[in-house]
Write a structure and sequence with these properties.
This protein has 256 residues and is an alpha/beta fold. It is 27% helix and 27% strand. The strands form five sheets. Strands 1, 4, 7, 8, 10, 13, 14 and 15 form an eight-stranded mixed beta sheet that branches. It has a two-stranded antiparallel sheet with strand order 2-3. The two termini are 19 Å apart.
Length: 256
């Protein structure tokens, strides 16, 4: 099974970081967030990846092309321009970086990258800007048991502020970051049957607001509830939160 990672957007709310690089290359703990995401999948035994690139996609190609170089001692033979790697690569991944266009939407990107997928095999799919301690194996099992075209991981967002109950102008109760009071949202970490891509109508097709509602209307969308850790990196505040968690030595998404 392969994992597809959507990595083509610009990430305008992280403009401080994404002016010079695509959002999935923004670093947490000195490593791009896409590196963390791929480790989540590798922990489930999934080590073949298709990265849907767009905005500054050449930097993603350069990152993966040089990943082994940056993580090993080397001997460089200048006369022959030969490089000997003196250590094994720290990861055993196969990564295809597919140029899916600067302006394509999420559904379009998936469809454009599908030529690198097996036509009769489900694949995993996620965004290049969020981490979780979700057990991908269980999501895959859930998908196979329920037999629908797509399974998404339903999560409750990490609450940033406490919640207050009001009666007129009077505060009746305060709930400090009570996730049990929050509704589930789409947390990504999908499993997708290739037939679901028939719902994608073109490069401008949006996975979240166009494809998923049509799948749901046809009874072809399942939701795997995950009440553990999940955190996107949409803003600088969220990046700093993830950095603090990583530096604490107790990052919840580090399941490898």
């Amino acid at each position: 099974m392969k994992a597809v990672i959507l990595a083509g957007g610009r990430g305008s709310r992280l403009a401080e970081e994404t002016e010079v690089r695509p959002k999935p290359l923004v670093e947490i703990g000195g490593r791009p967030i896409i590196w963390h995401i791929m480790h989540i999948y590798a922990a489930a035994g999934i080590t073949e990846f298709v990265v849907c690139a767009g905005y500054k996609g050449f930097l993603l190609k350069e990152y993966f092309a040089n990943l082994a170089l940056h993580n090993a001692d080397v001997t460089v033979h200048l006369a022959s321009n030969k490089v000997d790697f003196l250590e094994e690569s720290p990861v055993d991944w196969s990564v295809t970086v597919a140029d899916t266009g600067r302006d394509s939407m999420t559904g379009g990107r998936i469809k454009l990258a599908s030529k690198y997928l097996e036509p009769d095999e489900p694949f995993c799919l996620t965004y290049g800007d969020g981490v979780s301690d979700v057990d991908v194996r269980k999501v895959v099992e859930f998908h196979r048991e329920h037999g629908r075209l797509v399974t998404l991981t339903a999560v409750r967002p990490r609450a940033r502020f406490g919640i207050i109950d009001l009666d007129g102008g009077r505060v009746t109760a305060i709930h400090e970051k009570d996730l049990s009071r929050e509704r589930y949202v789409n947390g990504g970490f999908f499993v997708v049957d290739p037939a679901a891509l028939d719902y994608v109508t073109g490069d401008d097709s949006i996975w979240e607001s166009q494809v998923l509602p049509r799948l749901a209307a046809d009874g072809q969308l399942s939701a795997y509830p995950h009440d553990g850790f999940w955190q996107p990196m949409d803003t600088l505040w969220e990046k700093e939160l993830l950095e603090e968690l990583w530096q604490s030595g107790d990052a919840p998404w580090k399941i490898w």
